[in-house]
Amino acid sequence: MNMTQMESALRGLRLSGMLETLSTRAMQAQTSQEPFLETFAALLQDELDRRRSRLMDRRYKRSGLDERATLADLDWRFNPKLPRAACFELQTLKFISEGANALIVGKPGTGKSHVAKALGYQATLQGYDVRYLEADGEFARYALESSQERAQLLKDWVQSDLLVVDDLFLARRVTNEAAEVLQAIVHQRYKLRRAIVVTSNRVVQDWGKYLGDVTMASTILDRLMHRCTMLEFEGKSYRLKEAAARIAINAEPS
To answer: Which of 158, 208, 212, 254 is the least buried, fewest Cβ under 10 Å from its Cβ?
Structure first.
């Protein structure tokens, strides 16, 4: 079997990782006079790496995350009051296997969304099925969908290994429909022991006001906080810092 035939066979077997590196590995083996098993092992590893990479890409795309955030990207020195140790403990993802939650509340611009996205991204890398949603936008979209599409959205939000609900109550008062779907999500995930990460600028004591129903807020918080790590983010705004830096650059004489 010549090189062309081998490439055709690999293509037919859908071994794209091996196909991509076959000629390189063949030249490498000839140059260094590697034993057959070493060359074959390298080709197998190429295939495994390719499949793993494509699988991670699919999980990331399915998650709805808009960036591959990491905790290493955050400037912890700028905000030394942030609960750094607790954030890195969450990044171990033990809370997902335990069916626990994380509630991150605090001032705007202090890194809540970044940490939530970093946890979501790390979970995709570790093989978890993740769904990320910006609360206002996704709940508004849910209200406009057909009953069949709503059922599919709710199923995705309930059955994923990790659900990240970002910027809850950003627009303060939510619609009755949004309040009801939030209650359904939290209730069903609680029964299934599936993890949720929630970020919000609003203190939990005011959730009843934003939901328009104190009893509903109590029901949601009761389930959300039963098995929960609660983090409070205080300090300066990263967004204001970046805006000030841009202004300073633009103000420099040319």
So the answer is: 254
pLDDT, averaged in runs of 10, over the chain (254 residues) = 67 71 71 68 72 83 95 90 94 96 93 96 94 92 90 94 95 83 95 96 90 90 94 83 60 58
Tokens found for residue 78: 């700028």
Overall pTM > 0.85: no
Residue 176 in tokens: 């009755």
Among 202, 199, 44, which Cα is nearest to 135's? 199
Q: Indicate the SS3 state at residue 167.
A: strand
Domains of the chain, each with CATH number or no CATH: 3-63 (no CATH), 73-242 (3.40.50.300)
Structure tokens given for 54: 């494509």
DSSP 97-151: HTT-EEEEEESTTSSHHHHHHHHHHHHHHTT--EEEEEHHHHHHHHHHS-HHHHH
